[in-house]
Amino acid sequence: MKKRQVKKKQGVSDFFHSSAKWTRKSKAIRERDHHLCQSCLHGLDGAGIRYTSDGLEVHHIVPISEDYDLRLDDDNLITLCRECHEKAESGSITRAALQAAVEAGR
Length: 106
Known about the structure:
The protein is mainly α. It contains 5 helices and 2 strands; from the N terminus they run H-H-H-E-E-H-H.
C-alpha cells in the first residue's frame, strides 16, 4: 500500500522565493557582495575574518513576514554562507550587525 503524499501549504514567502524577480535580485546581491559571505568577511560571528564563498544564500535582514515591502530592498539583503544564515535566522548574529555590514560594503 502506498503512502499518501501530503503537500506542504505554500505561503506568500514561498511563492516570492520561487519568483523570477527574487532570482534576479538574489543574483545581483551576491554580485554586489563579491560572492563572499559578508558575516565571515566582517567577523560578525566571532570566529575572525575569513573569506567564505561556498554555500552562499541571500538573507532578508528584516524578514518578509515582518515587512513585505522590504523584500527587494538592497539595504535589507545580504549574502551569507549557510552557517551564518542559520545564525542570523536564530538571532545569534544581530540585525544591527548585518545592517552595519551592508552599509560598510557601499
